[in-house]
Amino acid sequence: MTQKPENNAAQPVLEVNQLSLKVGQQDLLKAVSFQIQPSEIFALVGESGSGKSLTSLAIMRLLPDAIRVTQGNIQLNQSDLFSLPESKMQRIRGQQVAMIFQEPMTSLNPVMTVGEQVAEVLRLHLGLNQKTARAQVIALFDEVGIPSASERYDWYPHQLSGGQKQRVMIAMALACEPDLLIADEPTTALDVTIQAQVLQLLKKIRADRGLSILFITHDMGVVYEMADRVAVMQQGQIVEQAEKETFFANPKHPYTQKLLNDAIPKRIFKEQTSAEKLLNIQDLTVYFPIKKGLFQRTVGFVKAVDGVCLSIPKGKTLALVGESGSGKSTIGQAILKLIDTTSGEVNYFNDAEPIDLAKLSERQMKPLRKKIQVIFQDPFSALNPRMTVGEIIREGMTSLQVGPQDKASQNTRIQSLLEQVGLLAEHMQRYPHEFSGGQRQRIGIARALAVEPELIICDEPTSALDVSVRAQVLSLLEDLQQTYQMSYLFITHDLSIIPAIAHEVAVMQAGKIVEQGPVEAIMKNPQHPYTQALLNSAPSLIRQVI
What we know:
Layout: E1 14-23, E2 26-36, E3 41-45, H1 52-59, E4 67-76, E5 79-80, H2 86-95, E6 97-100, H3 104-107, H4 114-126, H5 130-143, H6 149-152, H7 162-174, E7 180-184, H8 192-209, E8 212-217, H9 220-226, E9 229-234, E10 237-243, H10 244-249, H11 254-263, E11 277-292, E12 297-313, E13 317-321, H12 328-335, E14 343-350, E15 353-356, H13 362-365, E16 372-375, H14 379-382, H15 389-399, H16 407-420, H17 437-449, E17 455-459, H18 467-484, E18 487-492, H19 498-501, E19 504-509, E20 512-518, H20 519-524, H21 529-537, H22 540-543
Parallel strand pairs: 3-8, 3-9, 6-7, 7-8, 13-18, 13-19, 16-17, 17-18
Antiparallel strand pairs: 1-2, 1-4, 4-5, 9-10, 11-12, 11-14, 14-15, 19-20
């Protein structure tokens, strides 16, 4: 249970009153209203494009020049923010309201130490000298749980893990002791264990400092864990607002009901039936050399994959789970022969005859590339922005000589593939930037299907997607597997989707498989302490289901 605000009769910290925004003639926000009380965590939820982040930028007075306020106002501690000159607003940012973002790496200056970046805030807003600011930053780093705080002060962002970078951002936001913290999707890019730590930290800070938090997210598990009250946004409007318990027990609006239905995983454990092997990995190792000194001598190795054994049956899905850096994606790259393996076997059963992919040259591997395809985590960076959708899908068919090779017949097949993944035939003439994230992921799936693969490596294909889009993509992958009897290696750190997508699961830690077996056995009765820790780190709403 999250702590309830002690004094509901107090003046609200933040009041958003009938806020409406436009760009040109297009409405972006329409009469948005809500309040945040002292010490309250208020969750603003909805899909991408619903207006959540736009609302936060309006509160910070950081809207682009093209966007204009057509109605309403925002009161922070009874002060009308829209009536203030920019000079005064600059003092309010940091001192009264601060913000942390989804991706800490892009929010931190890569050429400044993390300590200096936080100290800069203290010197600018509070006028502290170098020595006092340094001591204050180290105290903040201790408060947010950064280990060896005085040493980490002099580290650069790239030397910290994702969770530690997010803690630096939280320390920076807290530096001037604001009354309101805006957290814009602060855990979306984090592993489940790191997410649990960051959420616990924010709740502790709220309790210690009496801080109010506007928590922007599309993750209902996080909302259940964190919020006192919840508001749901759809197409620039708030369609429902309620106390957390009421919100989850009795959602009123159809859109809210759909969001909750898509967010809470279906507890469907797939039957584990015997099947022929399609891929068998034996004692796979991938070591990366550590080079130091003037002559770049090898002084050690990073054991990214360390003696892994895996088997993927025909027509089945193996989920590979673990935290960032555990070696999951490296295994996928080794199967695709995008990196060199140090030792071991990657046996692909082509017409029942095993072929060790690890020993093939690039020329020998090329005919098998049509058999093994990949779907990436970020569909935007995986699609060439200068090519139309039709050209992107056609490229593999032409280079690997799959299907008809005359353009008219290829166009017919491309249109059929687009319709198969839930897009329109005419979309083949458009470019990737003209589509939403979920549509781009469907294009990536169509591209993989174009060469008629037997195995698709799905590398975190849903982690960047909203819950409703995620549900659609998972359903599509399930339908395609039933239709074509394809196999999937499904790489993920999202435990909630495993029961609905996988037949078997393998848990990876520090380059090794620590536990493997049928999904139901692993999820209901995990044996290894690391698997238990992963499951225990999932939000309680998700744990109730899995």
